[in-house]
Amino acid sequence: MATQPKTTGLTYQDLQAFPEDNLRRELIVTAAPALRHQRVVLRLGAALLDHADRHGGEAFVAPTDVFLSEGNVVEPEVVYVRPENAGKLEKALIRSAPDLVVEVSSPSTRRLDLVRKRELYERFGVPEYWYVDLDADRVEIYLLSEGRYRQPVLLERGGVLGSAQVEGLSIEVDALLGSPED
After folding, report:
1. Number of structural domains, the chain?
2. Among 61, 94, 113, 179, which one is least packed by beta carbons within 10 Å?
3. Residue 84 pLDDT more than 60?
4. pTM for this one?
5. Range of 94's domain?
């Protein structure tokens, strides 16, 4: 039987109370991702930033805090907030559920992204969650319907990624994923 990970019991308020000493602290700590992971994050962030510049909204890449509740603060790889939800943006964080959250797979975060974070995003009402699975070479799209994520739409190479939350966005899956050998 798997055991639950031990937590520090720290909250976002505790994290904010640490001194400005140039030491990085996070509530969920994982190993640095591989370069392919970072390339995918950059491609996706650039596409969303370009879309936001042309059509409105805001796009962010990690590190950007998403404050879901006092004990639930996450740092997704990529986040998009629609123009009409700009009130969720504060100086240092996004308060409440963004319109689109993206996690990109890493061996050390797979379970966290597909189980714990997906459940948090669902519970706190993130309307659209993408999981970019570099091992399977595809994108899983989870859409919220009646408070629950439906079975994911699976987009493989050759497909085109669009979004219910980012109208007009179009990204070729091949271009997003790059070479599997990277």
Report:
1. 1
2. 179
3. yes
4. 0.82
5. 43-177
Residue 116 has what pLDDT?
A: 92
The number of angstroms, rounded, from the C-alpha of 137 to the middle of its chain's C-alpha atoms is 17
Within a domain: residue 150?
Answer: yes
Assigned domain for 166 exists: yes
Cα separation of 108 and 6, whole Å?
16
| Integer Cα distance of 77 and 60 in angstroms | 8
Q: Is residue 155 part of a domain?
A: yes
Contact 96, 120 (CB under 8 A): no
Q: Are 88 and 96 in contact (CB under 8 A)?
A: yes
Length of the chain: 182
Assign 3-class secondary structure to 78-132: EEEECHHHHHHECCCEEECCCCEEEEECCCCCHHHHHHHHHHHHHHCCCCEEEEE
- Please say whether the beta carbons of 99 and 165 come within 8 A: yes
Q: How far is CA 73 from the centre of its chain?
A: 12
| Position 134 in a domain | yes
Task: Look at residue 58 in the predicted model and tell me its pLDDT.
Answer: 98
Q: How confident is the model at residue 2 (pLDDT cuts 50, 70, 90)?
A: very low
